[in-house]
C-alpha cells in the first residue's frame, strides 16, 4: 500500500472511531456542545470550512483515481494478456484487488466525512433545541406561577369586594334605620309643632276674648261711674 492510501486508510479508521464516539448514547448533546465550544475550536473555526472542502476534493480525486484503476484492470485487454502468462495474471488480479480496496477506502472515507459533519450539525442543533426547551420551560413555569399568583390576587380581591359589599350593605341598613328614626322624629316634631300652633291659636282666641270682655267691663265701669256722679250731683238740691 502506497503512502497516500495508507494515510486514507488511517483517516477512514479515525472517522469510524470518531463516529462511534459521537454515537455513544450516554454522552448527551449538551456535553458535546460544551466540547464544541472549546476555545481551540473557535480558533480553528475560520479554517474549518476550507479544511472540510479540501478534504472532500482530495477524497473525490482519490476516489476517481481508484475508479480509473478499477476500470483499467477490469477491461478485457489486461485479462487477455494475463492469460498468456500466469505470473502476469496474478499481478493483474492483485492490481485489481488493490484498486477495488482503494475504491472502498476512498468511498467510505468520503461518505463518513460527510456523515460526520452532519452528525456535528445535528448534535449542535439538538443541544440548542434542548437549551431553548429549557428556557421555554422556565418561562412557562414562571408564567404559570404568575398566573397562579394573579388568580390568588383575584380571589383575594373578590373576597375583599364581598367583605366591602357586606359592610356597605350593613352600613346601608344602619343608614336606613337612622333615616327611619329621623323621619319618625321629624314627624313627631311636626305633630308637636302643629299642637303648639293649635295651642297658640287657642290662646290668641282666648286672649282676644279676654280683651273684648275687659273692654266691655271698662265700658260698664265707666257708665257706672258716670251714673254715680249724676246721682250725687242731684242729692243736695
TrEMBL record:
It is a multi-pass membrane protein. Keywords: Apoptosis, Coiled coil, Endoplasmic reticulum, ER-Golgi transport, Membrane, Protein transport, Transmembrane, Transmembrane helix, Transport. The chain crosses the membrane at residues 7-27, 47-67, 103-120. InterPro entries: BAP29/BAP31, BAP29/BAP31_N, Bap31/Bap29_C. Its main location: endoplasmic reticulum. It is found in: Endoplasmic reticulum membrane. The keyword Membrane applies. Pfam families: Bap31 (PF05529), Bap31_Bap29_C (PF18035). Residues 177-227 form the Bap31/Bap29 cytoplasmic coiled-coil domain. Gene3D superfamilies: 1.20.5.110. GO terms for cellular component: endoplasmic reticulum membrane. Residues 140-220 form a coiled coil. It comes from the Eukaryota. Residues 1-133 form the BAP29/BAP31 transmembrane domain. GO terms for biological process: apoptotic process; endoplasmic reticulum to Golgi vesicle-mediated transport; intracellular protein transport; protein localization to endoplasmic reticulum exit site. May play a role in anterograde transport of membrane proteins from the endoplasmic reticulum to the Golgi. Belongs to the BCAP29/BCAP31 family. This is Endoplasmic reticulum transmembrane protein. It comes from Takifugu rubripes.
Amino acid at each position: 500500500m502506497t503512502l497516500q492510501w495508507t494515510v486514507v486508510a488511517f483517516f477512514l479508521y479515525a472517522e469510524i472511531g470518531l463516529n462511534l464516539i459521537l454515537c455513544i448514547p450516554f454522552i448527551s448533546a449538551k456535553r458535546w456542545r460544551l466540547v464544541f465550544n472549546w476555545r481551540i475550536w473557535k480558533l480553528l473555526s475560520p479554517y474549518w470550512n476550507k479544511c472540510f472542502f479540501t478534504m472532500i476534493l482530495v477524497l473525490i480525486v482519490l476516489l476517481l483515481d481508484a475508479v480509473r484503476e478499477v476500470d483499467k484492470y477490469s477491461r478485457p485487454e489486461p485479462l487477455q494478456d494475463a492469460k498468456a502468462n500466469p505470473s502476469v495474471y496474478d499481478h493483474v488480479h492483485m492490481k485489481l484487488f488493490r484498486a477495488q480496496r482503494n475504491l472502498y477506502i476512498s468511498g467510505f472515507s468520503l461518505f463518513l466525512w460527510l456523515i460526520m459533519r452532519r452528525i456535528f450539525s445535528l448534535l449542535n442543533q439538538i443541544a440548542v433545541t434542548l437549551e431553548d426547551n429549557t428556557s421555554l420551560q422556565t418561562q412557562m413555569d414562571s408564567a404559570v406561577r404568575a398566573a397562579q399568583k394573579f388568580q390568588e390576587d383575584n380571589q383575594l380581591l373578590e373576597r375583599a369586594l364581598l367583605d366591602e359589599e357586606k359592610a356597605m350593605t350593613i352600613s346601608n341598613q344602619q343608614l336606613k334605620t337612622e333615616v327611619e328614626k329621623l323621619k319618625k322624629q321629624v314627624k313627631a316634631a311636626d305633630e308637636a309643632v302643629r299642637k303648639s300652633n293649635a295651642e297658640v291659636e287657642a290662646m290668641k282666641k282666648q286672649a282676644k276674648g279676654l280683651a273684648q270682655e275687659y273692654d266691655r267691663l271698662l265700658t260698664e265701669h265707666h257708665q257706672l261711674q258716670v251714673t254715680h256722679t249724676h246721682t250725687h250731683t242731684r242729692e243736695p238740691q
